[in-house]
Amino acid sequence: MSRFDFSPLYRSAIGFDRLASLMENAANSGSTSNGYPPYNIELLSENQYRISMAVAGFAREELDITSHENTLIVKGSKEQAEQPQKNFLYQGIAERGFERRFQLADHIKVTGADLVNGLLHIDLVREVPEAAKPRTIAIGNSQ
């Protein structure tokens, strides 16, 4: 993968240094990600999103979802002590724990999560406060 230079973003944009850092980190760490578990990010409407993760074999009690500041962390841990030793001829289903992190944009809130047919659905919504919404500025008369 070729390396991109994001330094022009730093000098031409004010207040977007965090965005440029996130893009640079994503470009650098993209090749080190193991891709487990696979996931989709879906746009449901203008301000609603859904992350769907394939977590087949995990029970609700084995999954943990945490939202802290602008990071969403999804962890899965399998209980290995209670399962008997199995003799697989072929093992294609991963039974390992995982931790997947998502960087959330400002004003993105997690509204709910559900586990259906081996897919973990996490619903997100963008709630922009009134103070952050664009407003029209009237031009006054100096006379």
Automatic annotation (TrEMBL):
Keyword Hydrolase: no
Entries under CDD domains matching the protein: ACD_IbpA-B_like
Record-linked SUPFAM superfamilies: HSP20-like chaperones (SSF49764)
Keyword Ligase: no
InterPro entries given in the database record: A-crystallin/Hsp20_dom, ACD_IbpA/B, HSP20-like_chaperone
PROSITE patterns with a match to the protein in the record: SHSP
Keywords: Stress response
Residue ranges occupied by any SHSP domain in the UniProt entry: 30-142
Family note: Belongs to the small heat shock protein (HSP20) family.
The name this protein goes by in its record: Hsp20 family protein
Organism the protein comes from: Zobellella aerophila
Lineage: Bacteria, Pseudomonadati, Pseudomonadota, Gammaproteobacteria, Aeromonadales
